[in-house]
């Protein structure tokens, strides 16, 4: 059976990267489709995507939003679009080539061939596999995941990773409208929620290479959200256990877990 695969890439001012990224994903084996969610980039990122759509036979999709609304809300928008359009496997990936598009195939294989519900492109499962980051940022990222494991018990080495593959059952099972965070805490919250709902998760080792073009979207506010968000998630899980979104699950044609 041929699976429908959708890669979601949120963008804001990624004109230096987006054309090369689109062409690279479109040329991978496995007939991936791509959804770009652009938050009104003033550098014309959205227009560049529109210019490429005619070349890729309805495999390249674009949602344009007005203003910078945040990473988490972009992915939630993309997840809902993917579920409503019947995709089997949905991927998260950055636009700046810090994630190697070729690794999409390995993430897909971990789910489709090995039977996992979710696969994470992990920088830390086999050591520290990060290129071109200053040591301070490497340490901050690594110990953020240590902190998450300590507070929540989440058995994942790279809890802030943003390179992932979901089987549609995971996104149908999560109550997407109740996902609270919009920055890097969003990545932690999605993993924590999937784990609490009993989905099978695998970390696939990758090499993360920092962007060489464009500018990073990291900020102190995003980091602060993650630090305090982890504590909120742990408290919430104690007093309000996570439950499967059964209405969406059954509407998607999936048996209740």
Automatic annotation (TrEMBL):
GO biological process: glycolipid biosynthetic process
Glycosyltransferase 2-like domain span: 7-171
Keyword Repeat (UniProt): no
Signal peptide location: none
A molecular function GO annotation: dolichyl-phosphate beta-D-mannosyltransferase activity
Domain of life: Bacteria
Assigned protein family: Belongs to the glycosyltransferase 2 family.
Record protein name field: Polyprenol monophosphomannose synthase
């Amino acid at each position: 059976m041929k699976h429908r695969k959708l890669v979601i890439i949120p963008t804001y001012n990624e004109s230096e990267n987006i054309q090369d990224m689109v062409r690279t994903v479109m040329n991978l084996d496995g007939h991936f489709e791509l959804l770009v969610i652009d938050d009104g980039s003033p550098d014309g990122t959205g227009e560049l995507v529109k210019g490429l759509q005619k070349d890729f036979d309805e495999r390249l999709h674009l949602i344009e939003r007005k203003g910078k609304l945040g990473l988490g809300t972009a992915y939630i928008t993309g997840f809902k679009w993917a579920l409503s359009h019947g995709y089997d496997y949905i991927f998260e990936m950055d636009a700046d080539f810090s994630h190697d598009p070729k690794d999409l195939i390995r993430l897909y294989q971990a789910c489709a061939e090995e039977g996992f519900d979710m696969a994470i492109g992990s920088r830390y499962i086999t050591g520290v596999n990060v290129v071109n980051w200053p040591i301070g940022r490497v340490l901050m990222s690594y110990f953020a995941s240590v902190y998450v494991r300590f507070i929540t018990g989440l058995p994942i080495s790279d809890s802030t990773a943003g390179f992932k593959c979901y089987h549609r059952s995971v996104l149908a099972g999560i109550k997407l409208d109740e996902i609270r965070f919009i920055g890097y805490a969003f990545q932690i919250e999605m993993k924590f929620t999937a784990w609490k709902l009993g989905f099978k998760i695998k970390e696939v080792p990758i090499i993360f290479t920092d962007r060489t073009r464009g500018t990073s979207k990291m900020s102190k506010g995003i980091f602060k959200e993650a630090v305090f968000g982890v504590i909120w998630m742990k408290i919430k899980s104690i007093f309000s256990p996570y439950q499967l979104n059964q209405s969406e699950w059954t509407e998607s044609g999936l048996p209740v877990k």
